[in-house]
Write a structure and sequence with these properties.
alpha/beta, 7-stranded parallel β-sheet, about 15% strand
Length: about 375
């Protein structure tokens, strides 16, 4: 039996499409005579989705804070890898990449090492400052020899190839989303309602959305803006607005059921400055929502969809313009919802993603 261990730098309150896909991958891989185990940050230990995983397979926990510089993380990874005989070591969300590369060398492991670039910053080096830019470039130059790399958008793939000259290969594989509890929604709010997943204030462009909304409010438009996030998100928003929260803004805590979020709005906003693949845009499209998103390379996979409208990234004026078009005449944003839903199902389903992942795991040997 082939053994694989998944290092996942994620500890969200609720599973979302990524965890759901990983859970299904674990189950489907058993049919192919594979066993998958997991590693998460300590913060994930008490999450319900993590406890459910622990009922079915082995789960380890390690320190994720500044992992590549954290001696404790290296020791924890050393103990996990030393006492097991894994055929595949798969790293998700970048945090543990360097640790795993170094530990594989120290332990002289013959395991295949895969880096899955969910949050790869290489295509946004100008946004991270000179020191971080240098760090990321050196990471992909020095720590990817013989590593198998999975990119999740075309720009991502093209950029990493420039730096990782000695990697085993680079493969493009779009993310998949879980449709288990996601319903097609045709509800129309009585008042025009914009919804967004705020979370990381700067990366998600919350400030741009707030500025755009302010422009429209001052023009006399009536609408609601629902921002889904956590306490940190809301504190940053309150600070940005100097604690003067307009009545049109509503905060929404994380929800177990994604439909409780999508059902509240007419139009989904994604103002991200940096995105490799937006689960939110994908899920909103499947749910039948109009989407307005920034025209960053990581979102280009969605631009052909008739429900997706773009604005110039970093320009809240451009975003306000697109939002105003909807407020003036929502009928202009009508689209073939069944076509969009089928496109999402046929190109970005968890079944397709899992099938591709099992193919990747099945190829090659130590």
């Amino acid at each position: 039996m082939k053994k694989c261990i998944e290092f996942c730098s994620i500890a969200s309150d609720f599973p979302g499409s990524f965890i759901k896909c990983m859970h299904k991958l674990m189950r489907e891989s058993q049919k192919e005579n594979m066993k998958i185990e997991f590693v998460f940050p300590y913060e994930a230990k008490d999450k319900i989705w993590c406890k459910n995983l622990m009922k079915e397979t082995k789960v380890y926990f390690i320190s994720a804070k500044k992992a590549s510089l954290n001696l404790k993380t290296y020791v924890e990874i050393y103990k996990i890898l030393k006492n097991n005989n894994y055929d595949i070591i798969h790293s998700h969300y970048e945090s543990f990449d360097i640790n795993l590369f170094i530990m594989k060398k120290i332990l002289k492991l013959k395991s295949r090492l895969i880096f899955h670039l969910h949050d790869c910053p290489l295509e946004h080096l100008n946004d991270v400052g000179i020191f971080k830019s240098l760090y990321y470039q050196l990471k992909y130059i020095l720590f990817t020899k013989n590593v198998e790399i999975i990119a999740i958008n075309k720009k991502n793939e093209e950029t990493v190839k420039k730096f990782s000259k000695k990697c085993a290969y680079t493969k493009l594989l779009y993310n998949g989303i879980s449709f288990d509890d996601l319903k097609y929604n045709n509800s129309i709010s009585t008042i025009p309602t914009f919804i967004t997943l705020g979370w990381d204030f700067y990366v998600k462009g919350d400030d741009l959305i707030l500025k755009a909304a302010d422009i429209l409010f001052k023009k006399g438009y009536k609408f609601k803006l629902i921002i889904n996030g956590n306490d940190t998100t809301f504190q940053q928003i309150k600070k940005f607005l100097k604690c003067d929260i307009p009545k049109y803004i509503e905060f929404q805590q994380p929800v177990i059921d994604r439909n409780d979020f999508f059902n509240k709005g007419n139009i989904f906003l994604q103002a991200s400055r940096n995105e490799t693949f937006s689960f939110g845009v994908c899920e909103a499209s499947y749910a039948g929502k109009v989407v307005i998103c920034s025209n960053i390379p990581g979102m280009s996979w969605s631009f052909y969809l008739p429900n997706v409208n773009t604005f110039e990234t970093e320009s809240y004026e451009s975003l306000a313009c697109e939002m105003e078009k909807y407020l003036k005449n929502p009928s202009l944003f009508s689209f073939d919802k069944e076509f969009v839903r089928n496109e999402i199902m046929n190109n970005f389903s968890d079944e397709i993603w899992i099938k591709n992942m099992i193919e990747i795991y099945s190829k090659g040997s130590r």
